[in-house]
Amino acid sequence: MTAVFTPSLFDEVALDGPEVGPSWAGAHRTRLDERSWVDVVPGWLPGAEAWFDRLVRDVPWNQRLRRMFDQEIVEPRLTCGWALDEAPDRAPELGAALAERYGEAFDRVSANFYRDGADSVAWHGDRVRFTHPAPVVAIVSLGAPRRFGLRPVGPAASTDRTRGAGGTRWLTVCGGDLLVMGGRCQHEWQHTVPKEPGAGPRISVTFRHSDPGPVAARSERARDVPAWALR
Ligand SMILES: O=C(O)CCC(=O)C(=O)O
Ligand SMILES: [Fe+2]
């Protein structure tokens, strides 16, 4: 008998089947300078669309207030954070895949929800720099594409005369892409997701490691960076 294709049955099998893990096939490292790097893996996460829909629906999003001098600023995006083992489904599995690849015990997950192009994150280095000389920060993008900027600050800015416009780099991150910052990126570079009129909704899920480990980490000084951290 000839097999008959039944779309509903096919859909069910696809939904109930094992979720395919991330793929490193397209991984590409850009050296920002001799001490900082960014990895981009286009199409890292299969099933990114379905995960986006689930997170939009299930995460208890909130909009934080930030004190800036004597003003309270409402952050232009929604956020939520967890310990890795309490984070929503897929995050623990993805944290384990990242830990294997980067040799870091990622234990913190946070998510940002950019509802539209009016939501953004301003230029900053992540707070993990206060406890780590060379933190690895991994960001999974879900939903609509957005521009992601990196610009040098501190020593990197003053030595980088070759790239024009202050050495700022721009890339576009799409749903399913992975972007990983490492080396001195949080100390000597800043990053941003600027406002982008017309952009659709996007979520970023970030993985960080909170334990500074055996390295004496409470320092911003470059000479304290262990060689292994600058891979
Ligand atoms: O949404 C992004 O890709 C960046 C998020 C970010 O920089 C942060 O959460 O610190
Ligand atoms: Fe950040």
Kindly describe this structure.
The structure is a single chain. This protein has 231 residues and is an alpha+beta fold. The chain has one domain (24-211): Jelly Rolls (Sandwich), CATH 2.60.120. It is built from 5 helices and 13 strands. The chain has helices at 7-16, 48-58, 91-102, 155-159, 185-188; strands spanning 28-31, 36-41, 65-68, 71-74, 78-83, 108-114, 121-124, 137-143, 146-152, 169-173, 178-183, 189-193, 202-208. The strands form 3 sheets. Strands 1-2-11-8-13-6-5 form a 7-stranded antiparallel sheet. Strands 7-12-9-10 form a 4-stranded antiparallel sheet. A two-stranded antiparallel ribbon has the order 3-4. A hairpin with a 4-residue loop joins strand 1 (28-31) and strand 2 (36-41). The relative contact order is 0.21. Fe (ii) ion is lined by residues 124, 126, 191. Residues 124, 126, 191 line the site of fe (ii) ion.
